[in-house]
Specification:
Layout (H helix, E strand, L loop, with lengths): L3 H8 L4 E6 L1 E2 L3 E10 L2 E6 L11 E3 L7 E2 L4 E5 L2 E7 L15 H12 L14 H14 L9 H37 L5 H35 L9 E4 L4 E6 L13 E5 L32 E11 L5 E4 L3 E3 L5 E6 L13 E12 L2 E8 L7 E7 L6
Parallel strand pairs: 8-9
Antiparallel strand pairs: 1-18, 2-13, 3-12, 4-11, 5-7, 6-10, 7-8, 10-11, 13-17, 14-15, 15-16, 16-17
Length: 392
């Protein structure tokens, strides 16, 4: 016969060492946190104020999530379009007759990428071909080209064309007058020859003068037409690299006055960047790979983020964290069973201390990077004492 206390004592585990084997495996440390997922590299669409008009949004306001492609009108300000074109740097100025530089090359390349004939790709000079390509861009979008509705500009071209025609008519008349003078010289009697010769010389001078007038009129027409080439206003184009893009934020609506600082943003992809040091808290930007079947919109917002902090090498020696301790000298050690495991009291089990250098800690295990004396897979390490819940 046994009392309940005796039964309990008989059921208690025998005193002894609790051990675990050294294993060879890779372990991975992960951190689960919250992350704000947004589209990287934002490009604010904040057009320059139009000349002679209030910078008020009048239409073409995009929706969040809309895709913006090269050549699209992303906004309408003061009834004028704001085009998005591919380019490496923002538009620094308006471009037109007389412009020269890298921004001219960028505009030409952008229009050429849309299939528009923009002229010599290497030319840094704003020319008629580039002007014609700008005309085609606006016509394609359904807007009047800049300056095309200027009555003074159109009238100046017409006047210059009329001047050329008038000069041509005057030259034709002078040419006919010279022909008549020469005919009269041939038919003049001897006593009238001198007067007839003078008339021919005067007609020749008049014809030469008329021809010079034609050339000057043509030059003036070319200058007037050049001045009438279609420009690209600063406030009607935004250059963005890596198109297409997605509209991530819209801060305007029809009627918004852009002079008060409102802007419309389109964003795209990004890369991992390291900021700060290990002793500081700092934001970390991480590029997200979108899984198949998941939309971009589903990944935007505050989401759970599981991040891999580190992974040990394949076949690393690992032991339970409870097996690692510090000895009286402050060295990191593990206690290893020396020889065969003895069943019985802990005092009966020979063990030895092994100095170790630890590495990654994860999944309740810790990586042993080096040990003295050496450890091997299968060795038994002590993690506690049976019946006490204590380490030895």
């Amino acid at each position: 016969m046994r009392s309940p206390a005796g039964e309990h004592a008989a059921a208690a585990p025998p005193e002894g060492l609790i051990t675990a084997r050294v294993e060879a495996q890779a372990i991975t440390s992960m951190v689960v946190a919250r992350a704000d997922v947004v589209f990287a590299d934002p490009v604010a669409v904040d057009p320059a104020p139009p000349e002679g008009a209030a910078p008020v949004v009048t239409g073409r306001v995009p929706q969040v999530g809309a895709t913006v492609n090269a050549g699209d009108v992303v906004l309408e300000v003061a009834a004028r379009p704001v085009f998005v074109l591919p380019g490496a740097f923002p538009a620094p100025r308006a471009l037109g007759p007389g412009s020269n530089g890298a921004d001219v090359v960028q505009l030409r390349a952008a229009l050429a990428s849309l299939g528009l004939a923009a002229g010599d790709s290497a030319s840094q000079d704003f020319d008629e071909a580039l002007s014609s390509a700008i005309d085609a861009l606006y016509e394609r979008a359904g807007y009047a080209a800049p300056g095309s509705e200027d009555p003074e500009r159109r009238q100046a071209v017409r006047d210059a064309q009329d001047s050329v025609q008038d000069a041509k008519d005057a030259a034709a008349q002078a040419d006919q007058a010279l022909a008549n003078a020469r005919q009269a010289l041939g038919a003049a009697p001897q006593e009238d020859k001198q007067a007839a010769e003078q008339a021919v010389k005067a007609a020749e001078l008049a014809l030469a003068q008329a021809k010079r007038t034609v050339e000057r009129s043509r030059e003036a027409l070319e200058q007037t037409q050049r001045a009438a080439w279609t420009p690209m206003p600063l406030g009607e184009v935004v250059f963005v690299d890596d198109l297409p893009r997605r509209v991530d934020q819209v801060n305007v609506e029809v009627g918004t006055d852009l002079s008060k600082g409102a802007a419309d943003g389109a964003v795209g992809g990004g890369t991992v960047r390291e900021d700060g040091t290990s002793s500081q808290q700092c934001p970390v930007r991480i590029a997200v790979t979108i899984p198949e079947g998941v939309s971009e919109a589903d990944l935007v917002g505050n989401l759970q983020a599981t991040m891999v902090v580190g992974t040990s090498a394949e076949g690393s020696l690992v032991v339970p964290i409870a097996a690692v301790a510090a000895n009286t000298a402050g060295q990191t050690v593990v206690e290893v069973v020396d020889g065969e495991l003895v069943q019985g009291a802990a005092a009966d089990q020979p063990t030895k201390q092994v100095k170790v250098v630890t590495g990654l800690s994860a999944q309740g295990l810790v990586e042993i990077k080096s040990a003295e004396p050496a450890l091997k897979e299968g060795d038994l390490v002590v993690v506690g004492l049976a019946g006490t819940g204590q380490t030895r």
